[in-house]
Amino acid sequence: MITVKPERWDRVVDVVVMGSGAAGLSAATTAHDAGADVLVLEKASMIGGTAGVSGGIIWAPLNRHAAAAGIQDSREEALLYVRRLTLGREPDPALVEVFIDNAHKALDYLEDNTPLDLMLSLAFTDYYADFPGAKKEGGRSLEPKPFNARAELGEWAPKLRKSPHLAPLTMEEGAQVLHGGELPADLVEQREAEDIRVLGPGLVSALFKGLLDRNVPVETESPVDELVVVDGVVIGVRTRGESPELIGARRGVVLACGGFEWNAAMVRSFIGEPIVPMSPPHNEGDGHRMAMEAGAELGNMTSYWGQPAIYDPTVEFEGRPMIQMGGSRAFPGMIIVNHHGKRFVNEASSYQDFPKVVDAFDPITAEYPNEKHWLIFDASVKSAATIIPSLPGSAPAPDWIKRADSIHALADQVGIDPKGLEETVRLWNQAVADGDDQDFHRGTLWFEAFMTGGPDKGTCLAPIVTGPFYAVPMVHGALGTNGGSRIDADGRVLSMRGGVIDGLYAAGNASANVMGSSYPGGGATLGPALTFGYLAGRHVGGRNSRDIGDEAVLSNSSSA
């Protein structure tokens, strides 16, 4: 951290926004519209951050699209539902109200003032839709309509991320297929050929086009190394690289540069268990480090956006191992076991809840028994399910997926206790025959079939009887961390000594998620990111400019 005002700045703007994901693009938009001269600095060579590889769903109660569809919602219902899930562990209960009161306003503003065009994703009901205050009919999750990146962004289009995890189909289209409907056979190929973006890439493309229309500069490969903090006030940043720059910020700096899941030391210190990042490999906690140096109060630092995942060693993304979502765990006839061969969770529980059980400690054996775990299934499931996107049911299993003609031999191959696994499979098959999984209640969680009207034991259970039998190792995937600087209702970073750090703001995964580690529905990451980006940008953009020594830039330019 630099604590002395530089003798000269290389550049001076009103607002510096670090990061070009959903939070950063939202903040840059509203800061500009509030009258500020804005500069966006992106560390990576690609634009979009974690949002750019996401599903692009946005959770926002009280939104106008739901109202137009005749779906009733209320502030009281939304608060009742969220507070049931946070269990009082959120960083600041008041910010839950700020989010619910402003999420729909933020989306209205972005839709009315940028090319962003949203639609209901009715297939996405609330994840705990049988809880008080939830919506079984959906309406709180929105997604972007398809966006023609090539036509709208021109030469910029190739610099915006695409998702390695998801096909270019909207969530509604995916749900249509799930319900037995059909899509045009060449729809995916057509979108790829024409560069039509949906999901997270569509969201980022539309918001980025809004910045292009405003002539807001977005500079890639521009990592920020330090904040300039003089007498407790943030007045600028220093970039690093071949040509470091000191950039003054007359009104403030917004940290929207993602989480710290790619920083092994920070993960060990704060998360305390091994996680495997599924985000772009640039979220290394830069914003967290700078905020800590400036005296920020932190919150939610032990939490992350979990995703039960599978590592396919034959696939890479941006030069790193490709980790793929393990949604197939919910397929009837699949169970997950630990190295004792025992089940330990309802396999179809939500991707945010599942990892919490993986980290359970057993005080009797003094171990984390679930740290290593495997998907177990038989030949009938292998032929019917898509285990991971790169392995459709009809494809032969690669060598890295273990298989054997008996459960005992399979367990021997992968290091699972054979007797334990045999007994678990026997108990599972008996539960299937009885139509009741008394151990972990498969077929009872709303999330198991949240896109198809809720769970049904008859369709969620199937036996494991037909050889060969398969075991796929799972990993502790993380879509991102969700702890960071605590903020106030305007996105200002709180100081550990009380009050706020003047001139410093945070949003998205660089801040402490307002709903703690809970996840009420599809888009519970992007909803708060866009909302607090909107609030932070509006506040910092509307501030009066401070005298930070602009004349140093002018005099240097004149002498040059």
Describe this structure in words.
The structure is a single chain. By secondary structure, this protein is of the alpha+beta class. The protein has 2 domains: 11-259 and 482-541, FAD/NAD(P)-binding domain, CATH 3.50.50; 306-478, Flavocytochrome C3, Chain A, domain 1. Helix content is 30%, strand content 20%. The protein is built from 17 helices and 22 strands. Strands 1, 2, 8, 9, 10, 11, 21 and 22 form an 8-stranded mixed beta sheet that branches. Helix 1 packs parallel to helix 8 (199-213) and helix 13 crosses helix 14. The radius of gyration is 24 Å and the shape is globular.
Key words describing this protein structure:
eight-stranded mixed β-sheet, FAD/NAD(P)-binding domain, globular, alpha+beta, 560 residues, Flavocytochrome C3, Chain A, domain 1, 2 domains, seven-stranded mixed β-sheet
